[in-house]
Structures are given as structure tokens and as C-alpha cells.
């Protein structure tokens, strides 16, 4: 006899819905061949190179073009920081200032060449990024934004107070061999070269393993850490990268103006960079270029003549640009680039990655899997206290390869707390355990992930805006080795092909291939849970912990999930399920641990548990 208890979770279930239609496969005529896709960026670059040759172009306009390119460098940093990693930073002008002042001091005070000044600018901006990041990045959301703003204010205040640092003049021009970049026309070439390099490197970074880790942060640190991603480390990387780009911009600005002034690097400049990112679209590299170009081209020339035209004094341009920004946020919250590219999406949208198998001769790093029956997890006497609440008191659990263990109990019994103790999310107050050789007492989630533990979440944690394929690919983080430099220089292509093949294999394993190019968060709950499981399987785990995997599923999805978990057991994985669906648990698990009021009420096979009088009284309510 099966036991089916009504549970409040049932009330939260999504009403049965028809499956959405299968994704439309792009017709061959839709697709622009990969070789032609290069045509557009190369044409834009070619046109950009021709700009200085335009007849009648004044020095003022050339200067403006240079300034737009310099600003675009800072905004590219914001694309990494804000667009990809979701970190709000409001003090980028400080790093521009640090780069500018480093080169100004190096060239005017110590007589070094501007090229050594460039080294000083990049180094000091990077070091300042590391220092500010180390003390600021523990903060979240608006606290982080306010803290970066405060750093910016303090920086300008300090510069103004130090004797002789308010203004530095007579910086030497940049000279390469015999060619000096003293005129705006020549300087433009320097800016363009810096911008092309920065765009190529940022694109390489964002499309590689580290860029994926940055995107994973938008799904929450907890989910990222469970995939083996060191979220603080990744945040630091993004922060330092953006600071170095800002330092480069500062160097260019200082040698374009041939002078530096503390007032140019204030909070208003930082806000301008942020506005450029918002106007163009902070999630897109092209958005950074567009935003910087539009903002500089419209803002700077309008600034002098607007107040006299309207018959007012003061900062009327600020009011106008604020109003325009509000309008823009209403019409195009993602910035102008997504709107503008829509008619040209055949050319501009990145091609959908095709299903791939492991390239010949390539191998994917895999852990030696324990033989069936080998012990993977042993926990004894686990205790956890939250203030006055003893949430878990003396719970023990073992899991072997090739078995499914269920953790059940009434609401508030301590199941989720035990689950979090096993995942390393919270440390135990007492008791101990070993999971794949790692002591649970000190194990952080990402260490356990590296040891072979993967998990799902009670509320599905997927990265918004990413497709099923992209979400699943995040799970391969620990299977790759490519770091920032390899990504930036595009030297990670072979490894990427291998990781892509693994993601496709796991998508196929859970039956999601037809949905691979759909936005994952828009799928019905059952499929989203499968995405999470496919992502977890990409870690090549030995133990899989699933938190209420059947909650809210339609009967058909539930049956499919049951088949999948059964397959995983046959493949030798050890599984732990926290679950309220008694029918699901009783049919699937090999052993059950029943909890009540934080303690262990009983352990045994489903058949033993069903007949256990204490369990019937406390939990099953006589339904058995
Ligand atoms: N962070 C916390 N701070 C304080 N008390 C907590 C915390 N987490 C859990 N508790 C308490 O610990 C006890 C066990 O909670 P837990 O969420 O582990 O139970 P559960 O069996 O998972 O319940 P459910 O089935 O409703 O998810 C509850 O009394 C809960 O209020």
C-alpha cells in the first residue's frame, strides 16, 4: 500500500499546464554564416579608422571622439562588473584618477617615459582595485554601491588636501619611436588601439570559463559556491579588471589633456560612466561603446549652449539628461543596444551553440568513482543550534554508492538544517561527519563540490536570462582550468569545446535537448528542476543531494524524475533526498531517516518505516 499524505506544499504546486511548443529550429535561410558575421565588426572598425580622414572635422570633434573612446574603456569595465556579475559600483572615476595621477607623477616628477607611466597607471589602478575590493566586496547590493561612492569622495577630498596634487601640468606627449601622439588626430589612433584590445579581451573574458563564473553570481552566491565557484575571488577579479580598464582610461585622459586635475575624477564623473552603461545597455559590450559615444556626443556639446537658450543659469543640462534617462529607462530598460540591434539580429545575435560531442582525441577530467556499496558519507551525532532553538540534535546518516537515502519528517523537524549541514552551508555545533574524505566541520560548499558533492535547491536557483544550455554549462566550472588570461587571449577554445560537449551530454541525459536554447527560467517548474539536476551532474559528482525535488511537479514530470533518479542510482551515485511526497519517497529510496523535533526518530527501509509505530504516530498520522 502506498502512503500519500496531503501536504501544504501541494497547495503551492503549479497548476497542470500544457508543455510549451518545442523550440523553433532556425531555418537555414535565417542563419548568417559564421564567416560573414565577422564582416560587421570589421566594417565598423574600418569606418572608425577612416573617421579622422573625414573632410572638415574640427579638432574639437576629434577631441570629443577621443573622450568617447576613453569613456568607453571605463564603461567596458562596468559591463563586466555590473552587467555580468551584477555588482553595483559607483566609484569608477576614482580608478581613472589613480591611473591618470600615477602616470602624471611618473612623467612630471620622476621624468619617466609615458610608456612607463602606462605601466604605473595599470599597476596602481589594479592594486587600488584589489585593496578597495578586499575591504568593500563583502558588502552587497546598495551597501556596495554606497561604499564605492564613499571611496570616490574620499579620493577626491584627499587629492585636494595634499599640497601640489590638486593640478599637475605639462605632461609629456606619448611618443612611439619617432611618432608623437600630440594632436587629437594622432591620439585618436592610440585610443582606438586601446579600445580594440579592450573589446577583444573583454569579449574573450566574458565568453570563457571565468566569464561564466561571473554570470553565475547573478543566480546568487549560494548557488555559485555549490558549483565550486569562489564567489569572493570572482568578484575581486571583476573589480580588479574594471579598475585596470579605468586606469588605462586615466592614462589616456592624462596624456590627451597633458594635465590632470582632482576635480575631473569626482562622483559626477562616476555617475556619468554609469549613465553611459545604462543608456547603451550594461549587459552588452556594444552597449558600452554605444552608450559612451551617445552620451559624450550629446552631452558635451549641449552643455554650454543649453542654459542661455532656455534663459536659465545653472545645471539645466543635468535636469534634461535626468529626464531623458528616466524616459529611456521606461522605453528600453535594458539600454538602447538591444533595441537597435533587433532589426539586425540575424547578423548580430550570437549563433546558438550547436549540440556537440567530445572532439576526437580530447578527454574530460573525471574523478575515479567509488565502487557500488562503498561508503560516501558518514555523519554522526550532528547538532545545530540557532539561538534558543535546537534545530538538529544528534542526527546520523550514512550514504553508499548506488543507493538513495530519504530524509523525511514533519514541518520544522530539522530536515533542511541537516541538509545544509551536509552541504557545508552552515557548520555543525556538535557531532561530525566525513563526506568524500572531507570533514564536515570545516568544509565550505565549494570544497565539498570539488570533492564530489552536488546539490539542488528547494527553490530552483537558475541564472535569469540564460538559456538551458548556458545554465547547465555553469556546472562545468570545476572541470576546466582556463583562467582570466587564457580567456582574455582566446586560448581556451579546446577546453571550451570539451566543456560544451559535457554540458550537451548532461542535457541529453535528463531529456532536455529540445529545450536547450530556451530561457531556463521561463520553463515550467519540472523542467527547471531538471536543468538544475543536469547542471549538478556536470560536476561529475559522487553524491547528489536533492532538496524537495518532487515539490510542485505534475504527475508526468514526477514519474520522469523518478526514472532519472533511478538511472543515477544504477550509475553508482549516492543520493540523498529531502522530500515530503511520501509516495515518491517510499517507491524510490533504499533507506529512510525520519526526523522529528530535530532528533532522529527512526532509520530503516521504506517497508520498516511504514510499520514503525513511532513514525506512524508522529508523522504518518496512522495513514499507513
Ligand atoms: N536560520 C535559522 N535561524 C533560526 N531558527 C532556524 C533557522 N533555520 C531553521 N530554524 C529553525 O529550526 C527548526 C528546523 O527548521 P528546518 O527548516 O530545518 O525544518 P524542516 O524539517 O526542513 O521544515 P520544512 O519541512 O518546513 O522545510 C525550525 O524550528 C526552524 O524555525
Automatic annotation (TrEMBL):
**The keyword Transmembrane helix is assigned to this record:** yes
> What is the protein's membrane topology class?
Multi-pass membrane protein
Q: Which UniProt keywords apply?
A: ATP-binding, Cell membrane, Membrane, Nucleotide-binding, Transmembrane, Transmembrane helix, Transport
Its localization reads: Cell membrane
Recorded GO molecular functions are:
ATP binding
- This chain's protein is named Branched-chain amino acid ABC transporter ATP-binding protein/permease
PROSITE patterns registered for this protein in UniProt: ABC_TRANSPORTER_2
Location of the ABC transporter domain? 377-622
Species assigned in the record: Teichococcus vastitatis
Q: Which Pfam families match?
A: ABC_tran, BCA_ABC_TP_C, BPD_transp_2
Chief location bin: membrane
Show the InterPro entries listed in the entry.
AAA+_ATPase (IPR003593), ABC_AA/LPS_Transport (IPR051120), ABC_transp_permease (IPR001851), ABC_transporter-like_ATP-bd (IPR003439), BCA_ABC_TP_C (IPR032823), LivM-like (IPR043428), P-loop_NTPase (IPR027417)
Q: Which PANTHER family match?
A: ABC TRANSPORTER ATP-BINDING PROTEIN, CONSERVED COMPONENT OF ABC TRANSPORTER FOR NATURAL AMINO ACIDS-RELATED
The source's superkingdom equals: Bacteria
- State which residue ranges cross the membrane: 39-64, 71-95, 115-136, 143-162, 185-206, 227-253, 273-298, 318-340
Amino acid at each position: 500500500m502506498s502512503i500519500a499524505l496531503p501536504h501544504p506544499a501541494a497547495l503551492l504546486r503549479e497548476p497542470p499546464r500544457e508543455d510549451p511548443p518545442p523550440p523553433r529550429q532556425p531555418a537555414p535561410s535565417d542563419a548568417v554564416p559564421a564567416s560573414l558575421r565577422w564582416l560587421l565588426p570589421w566594417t565598423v572598425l574600418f569606418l572608425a579608422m577612416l573617421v579622422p580622414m573625414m573632410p572638415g572635422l574640427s579638432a574639437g570633434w576629434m577631441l570629443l571622439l577621443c573622450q568617447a573612446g576613453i569613456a568607453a574603456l571605463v564603461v567596458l569595465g562596468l559591463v563586466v562588473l555590473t552587467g555580468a556579475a551584477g555588482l553595483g559600483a559607483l566609484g569608477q572615476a576614482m580608478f581613472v584618477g589613480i591611473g591618470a595621477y600615477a602616470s602624471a607623477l611618473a612623467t612630471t616628477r620622476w621624468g619617466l617615459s609615458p610608456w612607463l607611466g602606462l605601466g604605473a597607471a595599470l599597476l596602481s589602478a589594479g592594486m587600488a582595485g584589489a585593496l578597495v575590493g578586499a575591504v568593500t566586496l563583502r558588502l552587497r547590493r546598495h551597501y556596495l554601491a554606497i561604499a564605492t561612492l564613499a571611496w570616490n569622495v574620499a579620493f577626491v577630498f584627499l587629492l585636494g588636501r595634499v599640497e601640489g596634487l590638486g593640478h599637475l601640468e605639462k605632461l609629456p606627449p606619448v611618443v612611439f619611436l619617432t611618432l608623437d601622439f600630440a594632436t587629437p588626430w594622432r591620439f585618436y589612433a592610440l585610443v582606438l588601439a586601446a579600445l580594440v584590445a579592450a573589446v577583444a579581451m573583454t569579449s574573450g573574458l566574458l565568453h570563457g570559463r571565468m566569464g561564466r563564473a561571473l554570470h553565475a553570481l547573478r543566480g546568487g552566491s549560494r548557488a555559485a559556491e555549490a558549483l565550486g565557484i569562489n564567489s569572493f575571488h570572482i568578484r575581486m577579479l571583476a573589480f580588479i579588471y574594471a579598475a585596470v580598464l579605468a586606469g588605462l582610461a586615466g592614462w589616456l585622459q592624462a596624456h590627451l589633456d597633458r594635465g590632470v586635475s582632482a576635480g575631473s575624477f569626482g562622483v559626477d564623473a562616476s555617475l556619468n560612466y554609469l549613465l553611459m552603461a545604462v543608456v547603451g545597455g550594461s549587459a552588452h559590450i556594444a552597449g558600452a561603446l554605444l552608450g559612451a559615444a551617445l552620451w559624450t556626443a550629446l552631452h558635451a556639446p549641449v552643455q554650454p549652449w543649453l542654459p542661455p537658450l532656455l534663459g536659465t543659469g545653472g545645471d539645466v543640462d543635468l535636469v534634461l539628461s535626468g529626464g531623458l534617462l528616466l524616459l529611456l529607462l521606461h522605453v528600453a530598460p535594458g539600454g538602447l543596444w538591444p533595441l537597435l540591434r533587433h532589426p539586425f539580429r540575424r547578423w548580430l545575435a550570437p549563433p546558438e551553440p550547436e549540440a556537440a560531442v567530445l572532439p576526437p582525441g580530447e578527454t574530460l577530467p573525471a574523478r575515479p568513482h567509488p565502487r557500488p556499496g562503498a561508503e560516501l558519507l558518514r555523519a554522526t551525532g550532528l547538532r545545530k543550534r540557532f539561538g534558543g532553538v535546537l534545530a538538529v540534535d544528534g542526527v546520523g546518516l550514512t550514504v553508499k554508492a548506488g543507493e538513495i537515502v530519504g530524509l523525511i519528517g514533519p514541518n520544522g523537524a530539522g530536515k533542511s538544517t541537516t541538509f545544509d549541514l551536509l552541504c557545508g552551508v552552515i557548520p555543525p555545533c556538535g557531532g561530525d561527519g566525513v563526506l568524500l574524505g572531507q570533514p564536515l566541520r570545516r568544509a565550505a560548499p565549494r570544497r565539498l563540490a570539488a570533492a564530489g558533492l552536488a546539490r539542488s535547491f528547494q527553490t530552483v536557483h537558475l541564472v535569469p536570462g540564460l538559456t538551458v544550455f548556458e545554465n547547465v554549462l555553469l556546472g562545468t566550472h570545476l572541470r576546466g582550468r582556463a583562467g582570466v588570461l587564457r580567456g582574455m587571449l582566446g586560448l581556451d577554445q579546446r577546453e571550451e569545446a570539451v566543456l560544451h560537449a559535457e554540458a550537451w551530454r548532461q542535457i541529453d541525459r535528463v531529456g532536455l535537448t529540445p529545450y536547450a536554447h530556451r530561457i531556463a527560467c521561463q520553463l515550467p517548474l519540472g523542467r527547471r528542476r531538471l536543468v538544475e539536476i543536469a547542471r549538478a551532474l556536470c560536476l561529475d559528482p559522487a553524491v547528489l543531494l536533492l532538496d524537495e525535488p518532487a515539490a510542485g511537479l505534475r504527475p508526468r514530470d514526477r514519474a520522469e524524475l523518478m526514472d532519472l533518479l533511478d538511472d543515477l542510482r544504477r550509475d553508482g551515485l549516492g543520493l540523498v533526498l529531502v522530500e515530503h511526497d511520501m509516495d515518491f519517497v517510499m517507491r524510490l529510496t533504499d533507506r529512510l531517516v525520519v526526523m522529528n523535533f530535530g532528533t532522529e526518530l527512526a532509520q530503516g527501509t521504506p517497508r520498516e518505516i511504514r510499520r514503525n509505530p513511532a513514525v506512524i504516530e508522529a508523522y504518518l498520522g496512522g495513514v499507513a
